[in-house]
Amino acid sequence: MSGKTLAEKLLSEKSGTDARAGDYVEADVDVAMAHDITGPLAFQTFDEVTGDDGELFAPDRTVFTIDHHAPADGVQAANNHNAVREFAAKHGAHQFDVGDGICHAVLVEEGFVGPGDLVIGADSHSTTYGGIGAFGTGVGSTDLGTALATGELWFRVPKTLRFEVDGELQDGVYAKDLILRFIGDVGFDGCTYMAAEYAGSAVESLPIHERLVLSNMAIEMGGKAGLVAPDERTESYLERQTGNEIDLGDAFVSDDDADYEAVHTYDAAALAPQVSKPSNPENAVDVTEVAGTEVDQLFVGTCTNGRYEDIKIVADILAGETIAPNVRMVVVPASKSVYQHMLGTGVFQTLTDAGAVIQSAGCGPCAGYHQGVLGDGDVCLATANRNFPGREGSMESSVYLSSPATVGASALYGEITDPREVETNRYDDTVFAEVLP
C-alpha cells in the first residue's frame, strides 16, 4: 500500500484509524472557532444539543472573535456582538473583542494553534492554519455548534493536490503571487474537497507569514485544507510568538510514495507577479497583462495579507512618497498587535504621511461591510482573497487581487504597476517579533 499524504496522516492521528482518501472518519477536534456572524447560529445549535446547562467540550480551546462587523455598523451587528460576549462569558471560552483582530490572525499570534492540530472554524478561511502544519478547515455554524458540545466531527478524508515550487523567487514575487497562479491553473473549483499540499525548496524557504497566505487561499480553489509541512522554521516562529518551547517531535510530513490526485510543478525563478482580474480569483494573469489599469482605491489588509510584514512592504515602497492623486488607500491591519507594531516602528506614520487611511483591526472592507466599501464604477486593487461581483461594495465595482508589493507600487502611479519596477523587500520570521523602540 502507498504512503500517506499530510492530510491522511493528520486525520489518521485524530481519528485513531488508518485513514485514507475517501474514508469517512470521526475525528477529535483540538480547537474550535466562530466569529460575530457565524457564532450566534452555532450557539443556538449548541443550546439545542446540550440544553440550558450545556458545557463546551474544551473552553480553553474554544475561541470567539468579534471581527467582521467590527466596530458595529448597525443594531443587528451590535446585538450579534453582545450574543458572542454573553455566550463566551457564560461558558468560559476565550473571546476577542472589537479591534483585537481577525480570527485567523489572532489564533496564530496568540498560540492557540500548533502543528498537528485539527482546527475547525465557522469561517471558510480556516484553512489558514495549515501554514503552520495544522489541519484547518471551515465548517458550517450547525456543525460547529454540535462540535462545541462533543469535541468531535466527521470528515471525508480528502484527496490531495500537491503544488511543488523549486528554486528562488525573483524580487517582487511573493506567496500571494504563487497562490494566485495555482488558482489560475487549476480553477476556482479545481481542488474541491481536496487538500492542497504545498512543497518544494521555494515553499520551504518562505517565512511563516507567507506560508499562511498559501494555506489561507486554498479555499479559493475549493480546498478542504491547505497544508505546509512544519519544520524548524515553524518551530522557531511559534516559540517567538508564544514564548513557549515548541518540540515538533514526530511532526507529520508526507511520505515519498504518497498517492496524489495530481502534482503541479513550478520553477520559482520563472514566476512573475500575478493579478487576478474581476470577478473571480481564478482570473490570474501576469501583472504585465493588466499594467496601466487605472484604480480608484487600494486596499491593504484581510486575513490573507494584513500582517505586519505585508503592511511594511507597502510602507517601505511609499516612504517619503505620496499616493497618486485621485486615489485613496485603505489599510486595515489583521490584529491589534499589528496595529500597535505599526505605531511603534513608524510604519503607521509613513502610511498616513503618504495619504493612507488606517482603520482598526478587522474584516470590514473585504466583504463590503463598512470601513471603505466601493461605489458604482469604482476600481480597486486589493490584497484580499476574493473579488466576486459586489464583494467589496457595489455590484458595479471591479476588484483586482494582488500582493502587497503590487498594491504599494500601484499606489505611486494610480494604476496597476509591476512591483519589479520599484524596490521591494522580503522579510523573514523575525520582523514581527522585533522589540518595539
From TrEMBL:
Domain of life: Archaea
Domain Aconitase/3-isopropylmalate dehydratase large subunit alpha/beta/alpha stretches: 22-414
GO molecular function terms listed in the Swiss-Prot or TrEMBL record: 3-isopropylmalate dehydratase activity; 4 iron, 4 sulfur cluster binding; metal ion binding
Protein name: 3-isopropylmalate dehydratase large subunit
InterPro entries reported in the protein's UniProt record: Acnase/IPM_dHydase_lsu_aba_1/3, Acoase/IPM_deHydtase_lsu_aba, Aconitase_4Fe-4S_dom, HAcnase/IPMdehydase_lsu_prok, Homoacnase/IPMdehydase_lsu, IPM_dehydratase_rel_enz, IPMI_cat
Key words of the record: 4Fe-4S, Amino-acid biosynthesis, Branched-chain amino acid biosynthesis, Iron, Iron-sulfur, Leucine biosynthesis, Lyase, Metal-binding
Family statement: Belongs to the aconitase/IPM isomerase family. LeuC type 2 subfamily.
Pfam families reported in the protein's UniProt record: Aconitase
Role of this protein: Catalyzes the isomerization between 2-isopropylmalate and 3-isopropylmalate, via the formation of 2-isopropylmaleate.
Cofactor: [4Fe-4S] cluster
Record EC number: 4.2.1.33
Pathway(s) of this molecule: Amino-acid biosynthesis; L-leucine biosynthesis; L-leucine from 3-methyl-2-oxobutanoate: step 2/4
PANTHER family linked to this entry: HOMOACONITASE, MITOCHONDRIAL-RELATED, ISOPROPYLMALATE_CITRAMALATE ISOMERASE LARGE SUBUNIT
GO-annotated biological processes: L-leucine biosynthetic process
Gene: dmdA_3
Binding site for [4Fe-4S] cluster: C303, C363, C366
Cofactor binding: number and manner: Binds 1 [4Fe-4S] cluster per subunit.
HAMAP family associated with the record: LeuC_type2 (MF_01027)
Enzyme class: lyase
